[in-house]
């Protein structure tokens, strides 16, 4: 990525993904992904936000979830713009694999694609541990409308801040995310 895409914040509301909406969204993602990819061999959650949805999806897909630490911003303050600088603890992830490389279809999961920088970085970082015929697909719960590069699958497109069940609830009022009814495929 040559420039950093800017996340869009209309400052209309702070969306809140409820545990129920999370469950519904993961069920929709599972249905769309398993329709297009009958066999997913690995599920990797981008920690911290992608860990919970990755665990849910891995359980439905019948595979063991893994996680990789990746950080885009120094903190999770409201309305933070993307820096374009993503750090990944690849060494810890690689140690977790042992001598094994990843084969088949690898699903990378995150809570939100804000600018696209994290997903872009993870695709590149995973390359050394993929066997030649392996493929990487990506899924997020939310896609910010300002993202330069999107995931292969997402549930909600947003133009405001999103609060997830695993985060501290904002001190400001929130609006529950609408019940999801479809997955958008960007592949």
Automatic annotation (TrEMBL):
GO terms for molecular function: glycosyltransferase activity. InterPro entries: PRTase-like (IPR029057), PRTase_dom (IPR000836). The lineage of its organism: Bacteria, Bacillati, Actinomycetota, Actinomycetes, Pseudonocardiales. SUPFAM superfamilies: PRTase-like. It comes from Lentzea atacamensis. PANTHER family: HYPOXANTHINE PHOSPHORIBOSYLTRANSFERASE, HYPOXANTHINE-GUANINE PHOSPHORIBOSYLTRANSFERASE. Pfam families: Pribosyltran (PF00156). Residues 29-167 form the Phosphoribosyltransferase domain. Residues 167-187 are annotated as: Disordered. Keywords: Glycosyltransferase, Transferase. The keyword Glycosyltransferase applies. This is Phosphoribosyltransferase domain-containing protein.
